[in-house]
């Protein structure tokens, strides 16, 4: 692989010299300064576009550290909102689906209806298919951009970030399921995986600590006021049977996740009500994503080094 001196072309084996959409100036300068090395290039196709991703090893300057080192936040990833950010006591930020994305999603639905009306294999059918392909790519890159901005901000701001752990059991259970529940869950699972993946590498960059809560931690259905765990299904709003405080699902989950930080770290004082959370109530609910019961304990959290 070779970057051409005009900064607008890339020479690849087999494909030959191709015009790039992005200027290659930045990477060329880093190489000239001996601060970057090209490891390889991956060529892929997304919709109608060809994407050449250049893998580089870069010496990054030392980052100045996070803005609020004492801040601990929990991130709940959902379907209604892309994500909810909370401290141990309150919700401080919400990541809603951006307007541009919502707009394209409804446009996508319209085009899919249109395609269904057309005769398969006809010219008009093909035209609609092309439009759908393009829109899918737009939706994907918009969501990608939104998530990138979000995770960078988080990693630059907070000292400790808690996310839900990998839920392998739910991924397996979803196979072959066509119900609305599993589809909705699948959507947020994808976003959750991506947010977690980005935080895993961005947190060490900016000096933030990422904690992955135990995957069986019942963050949504544990009352953050009294620690009572109850089956809540898929409802958005619920009321605690014990202390009758009312909760919004995502807000409650994010707060519980933020508190996980002190539960998960060894030797830290356990908060009032936390005793209840550490018992194996977790998986007994009607939630499809829960697998076998697991004890939520001190050793189960994954702490990535800062
Ligand atoms: Zn309660």
Describe this structure in words.
This protein is α+β, with helices and mostly antiparallel strands. The chain has two domains: 2-58, no CATH class; 68-96 and 153-303, no CATH class. Helices cover 38% and strands 23% of the residues. It has a six-stranded mixed β-sheet with strand order 8-7-6-9-10-13. Strands 1-2-3 form a three-stranded antiparallel β-sheet, with no helix packed on it. Strand 1 (2-3) and strand 2 form a beta hairpin. Helix 3 (123-157) crosses helix 5 (180-206). The longest helix is centred in the middle third of the chain and has 35 residues, at 123-157. It binds zinc ion. Residues 223, 225-226, 228, 240, 242-243, 245 line the site of zinc ion (ZN).
Question: What ligands does this structure carry?
Answer: zinc ion
Give the uncertain stretches in residue-range form. Answer: 265-306
Helix-residue proportion:
25-40%
- H/E series: EEEHEEEEEHHEHHEEEHHE
List keywords for this structure.
306 residues, alpha+beta, 7 helices, 13 strands, disordered C terminus, binds zinc ion
Question: In summary, what is this structure?
Answer:
This protein is 38% helix and 23% strand. The chain has 306 residues and is an alpha+beta fold. The protein is flat.
How are the SSEs placed, and which strands pair?
Elements lengths: L1 E2 L5 E4 L3 E4 L5 H8 L3 E11 L2 E10 L9 E10 L5 E4 L4 E5 L3 H19 L5 H35 E7 L3 H6 L6 H27 L2 E5 L23 E3 L6 E3 H16 L9 H4 L24 E2 L3
Parallel strand pairs: 6-9, 9-10
Antiparallel strand pairs: 1-2, 2-3, 4-5, 6-7, 7-8, 10-13, 11-12
This protein binds zinc ion.
The site of zinc ion has 8 residues, from loops.
């Amino acid at each position: 692989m070779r970057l051409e001196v005009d900064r607008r072309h890339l020479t690849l084996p087999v494909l030959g010299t191709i015009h790039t959409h992005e200027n290659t100036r930045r990477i060329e300068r880093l190489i000239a300064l001996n601060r970057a090395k090209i490891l390889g290039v991956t060529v892929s196709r997304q919709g109608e576009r060809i994407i050449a991703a250049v893998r580089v090893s870069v010496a990054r300057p030392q980052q100045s550290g996070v803005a609020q080192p004492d801040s601990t936040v929990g991130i709940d990833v959902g379907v209604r909102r892309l994500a909810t950010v909370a401290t141990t006591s309150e919700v401080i930020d919400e990541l809603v689906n951006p307007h541009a994305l919502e707009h394209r999603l409804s446009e996508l639905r319209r085009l899919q209806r249109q395609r269904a009306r057309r005769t398969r294999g006809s010219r008009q059918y093909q035209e609609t298919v092309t439009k759908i392909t393009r829109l899918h790519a737009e939706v994907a890159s918009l969501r990608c951009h939104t998530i990138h901005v979000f995770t960078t901000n988080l990693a630059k701001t907070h000292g400790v970030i808690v996310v839900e752990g990998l839920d392998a059991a739910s991924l397996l259970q979803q196979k072959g399921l066509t119900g609305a529940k599993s589809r909705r869950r699948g959507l947020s699972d994808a976003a959750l995986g991506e947010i977690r993946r980005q935080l895993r590498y961005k947190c060490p960059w900016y000096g933030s600590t990422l904690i992955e809560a135990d995957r069986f931690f019942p963050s949504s259905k544990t009352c953050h006021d009294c620690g009572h765990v109850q089956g809540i299904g898929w409802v958005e709003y619920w009321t605690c049977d014990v202390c009758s405080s009312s909760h919004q699902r995502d807000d409650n989950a994010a707060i519980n996740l933020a508190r996980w930080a002190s539960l998960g770290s060894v030797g830290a004082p356990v908060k009032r009500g936390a005793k209840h959370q550490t018992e194996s109530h977790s998986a007994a609910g009607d939630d499809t994503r829960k697998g076998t019961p697991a004890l939520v304990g001190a050793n189960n959290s994954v702490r990535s080094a800062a």
